[in-house]
Amino acid sequence: MAACTVYTTQSLHSTCSISTPSKTHLGFNQKKQILFYNSGKRVTNRGIAAVPYVIRCSGDTVVIGLAADSGCGKSTFMRRLTSVFGGAAEPPKGGNPDSNTLISDTTTVICLDDYHSLDRTGRKEKGVTALDPRANNFDLMYEQVKALKEGKAVEKPIYNHVTGLLDPPELTKPPKILVIEGLHPMFDQRVRDLLDFSIYLDISNEVKFAWKIQRDMAERGHSLESIKASIEARKPDFEAYIDPQKQYADAVIEVLPTQLIPGDNEGKILRVRLIMKEGVKYFSPVYLFDEGSTISWIPCGRKLSCSYPGIKFTYGPETYFGHEVSVLEMDGQFDRLDELIYVESHLSNLSTKFYGEVTQQMLKHAEFPGSNNGTGLFQTIVGLKIRELYEHIIASKAAAPLEATKA
Amino acid sequence: MASSASAVAIGGPARGTIPSSRSLGSGRSSCPRVVSLPVAARGGGGGGKAGALAVRAMAPAKYKGTRMREKRLAEMIEEKVREASEVCEGDARSDECKVAWDEVEEVSQAKADLRLRLEKQQDPLESFCEQNPETDECCVHFD
Q1: Count of H helices and E strands in chain B?
Q2: Is residue A360 within 8 Å of residue A377, measured between CB atoms?
Q3: pLDDT tens-digit map of A358-405
Q4: End-to-end CA separation in angstroms for chain A
C-alpha cells in the first residue's frame, strides 16, 4: 500500500526542477505516477498559471546498504554499481565541495560518516575511534533514511574528512535507489529493517595490508611500520563493531590472497568469494552449471588458453553464520577479453538483460582496479542483481491499486 | 578575471582533453568581447593559476588551491603519524593510541581520495563550467 505526499511546485513557467527527472534513459520499466492538478483559482489573462501539484507516491525508493572500510562513495564498487543503473555518479553540484554524497540520475549514495555525532576533536576527547558506535548518531541515521525511503527530502549533515568537522547540512532529495555506504549500515536494528538489500565487503587482513601499502607508501609521512601500526591499532574496534555486521548481509564479497601461487603475499592475484544468502526475496544467487551442487572448474584448457597462474572457479552450498548460502569463488585473473566472455557464458542466473552484459560492463570500466579479477566481476554481478531486485520491487508496488494515489 | 579566463582556455595543452569539453559547451557566441593579452603576459601574469598552467606543461597542471590542499594534507599526515607514534610509545593498547592511528587512517584516505579525484578531473572548475559556460571563469575566447 502506497501512502502519497503532495508537493507543491512553482509555476511551470519558471525554471525550477521537479524532484523526479523528466528524462529516463533507463533500461527498465517503471510506472511514474505524476499527476498535475490545477487549483480552482486560475488567473489566465495575466499568464500566471495556478500552482500545479506534483503527487509522488512513497515507497518508490529502494534502499541498499553497503558496509565497506574504504572511505565513502568514491570506491570502485559504487562507481560500478551506479554505472549498471546508468549514468555516472557525481558529487552534488553547487554545494559543499567536500560533500561525500554522490548523485546520479537514479541513484544517490550517502556516506554514513555524515552521521558522526562526534567530530575529530570530540572523538579525541572521548577516546573513541570512528569505528565505535558511540561516535555515530543512529537515531538521526534511522530518521533520515526512513524519511528518504518514504519520499521526503532531508537536510543531511556533512562530515568533512579533510577538516574533521561537521559542516552545515545539505538538502538531499529522495532518489529511486538510495545506497547507504559506510562502516555501520547494518549495525542498528531499525536501519537494518529499512534495507531492501545489504552487502558487506570483507577484505582479509593480508589483502588490506597490501592495498594500504599501495595507497600510502608514496606519502612522505608514511613508512611500512606506520601503515602496519595503523591497521593493528584499528583492528580491535573493527572486529568488535564492524565485522559482526557480516552475518546480516544478503551478499558478502570476501577478498583473500590467492591459493594458486604458494607463498604469494603481494596481493596482486586475488581469490574472491561471493557469498549469497539463500531465501532472500527477489534475489536469486548466481550458480555454476548446477544449482545446489558443488563444482570446481578450471576454464583454461583446450578451448581457452590462459597465462600463469590461470583461473579457478568453485561453486557450492555452505552455511555462513547459521544461514544457508551459496558461494561462488574465483581465484586468479583475466588477461584477455575472451576469457571473460567464456566465463560469463558458463555462469547462470546472472540477471543480465542480454548476452555479454557482464563483459560489457567490465570493459566499460577497464581502468578501475579489480577489473581483471573477481572483485570487479562480482561487484558487477551484484550490481545486476540489485537492478533486478529494484525492478521486482517496483513492479510489485505498481501492482498496488491506484486508488491509494487519489488521496 | 577575464584575462585569467582566456589564459586558462588557451593554456590547453597542459590539460589534455579539458579544453575540448569546454569548447563543446553551448553558448560560445554569447561570450562577451574581451581585450586579448599578448602571449608573454598570459604566460607570466594573470595570477598563480594561469602562470602555473602556461609555464608547467610537463607536470600535470595543478591549480594553486589544489597544490595547497595536497600540501596541507601531506603535512597533516606526517604530523599525525608523528603524534600517533609518540602517543603509542607509552601504551600501545590505550584508547589514545587507537584514536591517533584512526586519525592517521582518516587523513590518509582523504589524501588518497583527493589524488584519485585529481587524476579523474584535473580541472576543479569543470563541473561548474558545464553548467555556466558564459561566466567569466569559463568563457572561451577565440581571438
Answers
A1: 7, 0
A2: no
A3: 999 999 888 888 889 999 999 999 999 999 999 999 898 888 755 456
A4: 12
Does residue A162 belong to the interface with chain B, where contact is any CB pair within 8 Å?
yes
Chain B contact present for A233, CB below 8 A: yes
Give the one of A130, A215, A222 whose C-beta lies nearest to B81's C-beta: A222
The grid coordinates of residue B12 equal 590547453
Nearest-Cα residue of chain A relative to residue B72? A162
Rounded to an integer, what distance in angstroms lies between the CA atom of residue B126 and that of residue B124? 6
- Which residue from B77, B102, B105 is facing A221, i.e. has the nearest CB? B77
Which residues in chain A have Cβ-Cβ distances shorter than 8 Å to B74?
219-221
Beta strands per DSSP E along A77-132: 102-103, 107-111
Q: Any CB–CB contact under 8 A between B68 and chain A?
A: no
Partners of residue A129 in chain B, C-beta under 8 Å: 98-99, 102
Q: Chain A contacts of B99, Cβ < 8 Å?
A: 123-124, 127-129
Q: Evaluate if residue A232 carries a pLDDT over 50.
A: yes
Confidence band of A68 (pLDDT split at 50, 70, 90): confident
Q: Which residues of B touch A93 (CB under 8 A)?
A: 127-128, 131
ipTM at complex level: 0.76
H helices of B46-133, in order, are 47-55, 64-90, 95-120, 126-131
Q: Does A70 touch chain B (CB under 8 A)?
A: yes
The C-alpha cell at A200 is 558487506
Cα distance between residue B101 and residue A318, in whole Å:
37
What pLDDT, in 10s, does the model give residues B33-85? Answer: 555 444 443 333 333 444 334 333 334 556 787 788 888 888 888 898 888 88
Closest residue in chain A to residue B96, using alpha carbons only: A127
pLDDT, tens digit, 9 for 90 and up, residues A101-135: 888 888 999 999 999 999 999 999 999 999 999 99
* A310 torsion bin: left (phi>0), alpha (psi -120 to 50), beta (else): left
| Cβ atoms of residues A393 and A386 within 8 Å | no
Per CB-CB distance under 8 Å, the chain A contacts of B114 are 162
**CA distance linking residue A308 with residue A268, whole number of Å:** 13
Q: Cis before residue A21, ω within 30 degrees of 0?
A: no
Q: Are B49 and B64 in contact (CB under 8 A)?
A: yes
CB atoms under 10 Å from CB of A40, counted, come to 5
**Nearest residue of A to residue B95 by CA position?**
A127
- Minimum CA–CA partner of B73 in chain A: A162
Is the model's pTM score more than 0.80? no
* CB-based contact A237 B98, cutoff 8 Å: yes
Calpha distance A263→A279 (Å, rounded): 38
